[in-house]
Amino acid sequence: MRTALSGARVPHAWLFTGVEGVGKDAAAIAVATFLRCENPGPDATPCGICHGCTTTTSLRNANVRFVFALPSGKSEDSRSDSPLLKLNDAEISQIQEQIAMKASDPYHNISIPRAQQI
Length: 118
Description:
mainly alpha; 2 domains; 4 helices
């Protein structure tokens, strides 16, 4: 990754995959922080203090997007409906709180309430 980041051209998107708990989210945040950093170091490290770094590490940078896969619905009738429509406001709020916690602790596991019923 450091080699790719230190070059003049970087990929337009990155896909981080693997088993749970290996640090995919932490690596994604680190790469995004470097790419948004206004004063990166020569060894592909972000400065950590500029606006780009602080907004990215706090997950508030409008130019950084995280995509999480959701399980498909259990019945064929619900395939056209979004799984998010099956969550109530309290459950959506709980997921948003967990995503915010991910900003301060990249190893925090996000659990989706009633994930098996979505």
